[in-house]
Automatic annotation (TrEMBL):
<keyword id="KW-0001">2Fe-2S</keyword>
<keyword id="KW-0408">Iron</keyword>
<dbReference type="Pfam" id="PF01592">
    <property type="entry name" value="NifU_N"/>
</dbReference>
<dbReference type="Pfam" id="PF01106">
    <property type="entry name" value="NifU"/>
</dbReference>
<feature type="binding site">
    <location>
        <position position="105"/>
    </location>
    <ligand>
        <name>Fe cation</name>
    </ligand>
</feature>
<dbReference type="GO" id="GO:0016226">
    <property type="term" value="P:iron-sulfur cluster assembly"/>
</dbReference>
<dbReference type="Pfam" id="PF04324">
    <property type="entry name" value="Fer2_BFD"/>
</dbReference>
<feature type="binding site">
    <location>
        <position position="172"/>
    </location>
    <ligand>
        <name>[2Fe-2S] cluster</name>
    </ligand>
</feature>
<feature type="domain" description="BFD-like [2Fe-2S]-binding">
    <location>
        <begin position="132"/>
        <end position="182"/>
    </location>
</feature>
<dbReference type="InterPro" id="IPR002871">
    <property type="entry name" value="NIF_FeS_clus_asmbl_NifU_N"/>
</dbReference>
<feature type="binding site">
    <location>
        <position position="61"/>
    </location>
    <ligand>
        <name>Fe cation</name>
    </ligand>
</feature>
<dbReference type="InterPro" id="IPR007419">
    <property type="entry name" value="BFD-like_2Fe2S-bd_dom"/>
</dbReference>
<dbReference type="InterPro" id="IPR010238">
    <property type="entry name" value="NIF_FeS_clus_asmbl_NifU"/>
</dbReference>
<comment type="similarity">
    <text>Belongs to the NifU family.</text>
</comment>
<dbReference type="InterPro" id="IPR001075">
    <property type="entry name" value="NIF_FeS_clus_asmbl_NifU_C"/>
</dbReference>
<keyword id="KW-0411">Iron-sulfur</keyword>
<dbReference type="GO" id="GO:0005506">
    <property type="term" value="F:iron ion binding"/>
</dbReference>
Length: 275
């Protein structure tokens, strides 16, 4: 079950600016119905190139609707060159976070915006450069390299979450892994079995990682974390201070706490919050 911020829920339940702008100056369409995600963005400008109206239609999940709605709110009142600078990270931040499995919804918003602006400027939408790696979703090696770099991704699953590549038949996973390895500058690690940790050693390592890597970062924002229990690969924690009431707490837990513990203790760990 994904955790959504209040703002995502709000924009999903009451999406702003749904529809199509009549006589639009710019139109951007991305995705396809067959993949389950599609977005059409239309906007109108005044004589100073300020966006006065923008609407969207989407066929997608709650995150796609919320991301599109958020994007339209961010665009209205901006000049075209200001709107052009909106990135998918801005959309995610506006929404107070998105589950990592849904990051591609915000990327779809950014792509629709790029296409709509290109349409207004009469610039042909550039043919994708590079070699298609994922045939299911038409994603090229250059797009994967860009996502790896911009979001510092390190696993095939992360690439799928961000740009959908690899989310279909799975034939492209090996090539995506090669691109990840090239990006990280090392050869593939073949079948390297993680060291089996005893329970005591595991708990000790978890505590050390919390103290050294996690608590200092949370404390900077007025939060903290307490280890409650460890059961096999499940780690139960309690968020404290500012973190306990933060709308993005689940994202902090999964994207920061869990990733750090997987990196420094064991890759199979799952972090869960207890109240
Ligand atoms: S080719 Fe990438 S998922 Fe099918």
């Amino acid at each position: 079950m994904w955790e959504y911020s209040d703002k995502v829920k709000e924009h999903f339940l009451n999406p702003r600016n749904v529809g199509v702008v009549e006589n639009a100056d710019g139109i951007g369409e991305v995705g396809s119905m067959s993949c389950g995600d599609a977005l059409k963005l239309t906007f109108k400008l005044d004589e100073n190139e300020i966006i006065t109206d923008v609407k969207f239609q989407t066929f997608g999940c709650a995150s796609a609707i919320a991301s599109s709605s958020a994007l339209t709110e961010m665009m209205i009142g901006k000049t075209l060159s200001e709107a052009e600078k909106i990135t998918n990270d801005d959309i995610v931040a506006f929404l107070g976070g998105l589950p990592k499995e849904k990051m591609h919804c915000s990327v779809m918003g950014q792509e629709a915006l790029e296409k709509a602006i290109a349409c207004y400027r009469g610039v042909p939408v550039e043919e994708k450069e590079g070699e298609i790696v994922c045939e299911c979703f038409g994603v090229t090696d250059l797009e994967i390299q860009r996502a790896l770099k911009e979001h510092n991704l390190s696993a095939v699953e992360d690439v799928t979450n961000y740009i959908k590549a690899g989310g279909g038949c799975g034939k492209c996973h090996e090539r995506i892994q090669e691109l990840i390895n090239e990006f990280k500058g090392h050869e593939p690690v073949i079948d390297k079995k993680p060291e089996k940790l005893s329970n005591i050693k595991k708990i000790k390592l978890i505590e050390e990682t919390l103290e050294r890597e996690i608590k200092p970062a949370l404390k900077k924002d007025g939060g903290d974390i307490e280890l409650v229990d460890v059961d096999g690969s499940k780690i139960f924690v309690k968020l404290q201070g500012a973190c306990s009431s933060c709308s993005a707490a689940q994202i902090t837990l999964k994207e920061f706490v869990e990733k750090k513990l997987c990196e420094f203790v064991s890759p199979d760990l799952v972090v869960e919050e207890v109240s």
